[in-house]
Amino acid sequence: MAMLNIVVLNQLADRHKQAIAAAAPDVNIIVCEEKDALQHMPDCHILVTWGSTEIRQLYLAAPNLEWVHALSAGVEKLVFPEIQAADTILTNSKGIHGIPITEHVLAMMLAFSRGLNLTIRQQLAKNWKRVPAAELYEHTIAIVGLGAIGREIAKKAKALGMTVLASKQEMTTELFVDKLYLSDNDSLLEMLAQADFVVVCLPLTASTKNLISLPHFAAMKRSAYFINISRGAIINEADLITALEQKLIQGAGLDVFVAEPLPETSPLWDMPNVIITPHMAALSPVYLDRAIKLFSDNLTRFVQGREMINLIDKIKGY
Known about the structure:
The protein is an alpha/beta fold. The protein folds into two domains: 4-96 and 285-304, Rossmann fold; 98-276, Rossmann fold, CATH 3.40.50.720. It has helices at 14-23, 56-60, 81-85, 98-113, 116-124, 148-159, 185-192, 214-219, 237-245, 287-304; strands spanning 4-8, 27-31, 46-49, 67-70, 89-91, 140-144, 163-168, 179-182, 197-200, 225-228, 251-254, 274-276. Strands 8-7-6-9-10-11-12 form a seven-stranded parallel sheet, sandwiched between helices. It starts with a strand and ends in a 14-residue tail after the last helix.
């Protein structure tokens, strides 16, 4: 096989480059920033980037491009008409996010359950005052979107003694789920009404944009907490703010937003029943190690003509 030119739009350590080189003979690894990538596109065969990167201009300048790989699970900016109409392979890094995102979700749930969202504010004011505290044990979690991340959350929640509800597009046997629902709207509303914690784990597609809106918040318990670690645009953010202001739900843990960074004018910043983190749920000191290991495995499959993993349906967007 001829030399493969792999352009990576992210910094790599030497161990990452060595892992890629060991996966396939005759590879030329070009690490550069997005602003410098255009010059490398005419000879690029494989592009490694993030799903939030606008690559359409690069794609149109890459006549030899055979494969685009996302270091993230989301590929929302990598799907556009030209790549959909072509034979270009598109893959993602699904499967490496479960551990850090699950721990982030559990941190938010425990913080709300034990009142830490309130006591941290009180600490800043040097205010010694007890707040209501509860337990996760024997409470109910509803997972909207039972993919790889959702299953990991279900497993950890079950270990904490929670009742686990989940929704997905087809009915399957799930080891850590007490009741599975289809993802149609009526089933979703039925599931949400039972939950103490609702966690959204869906990819952002045309069909999931603004999926969760005011009727869904109104269907939840007034004591329920809503957590989103997927994509901000899946939620109607104005409706979420309304639900919080009108106390339709107890609180929200939000890692993702429609506009990022979250504008300073957003009322979410000042709500004591909201925990905000800056799109960091998947962060881990070993994230890139896991991502490059997955990519390297797929690179070996690619050069050997074997079936690749994490192939994206470019029409569906996931």
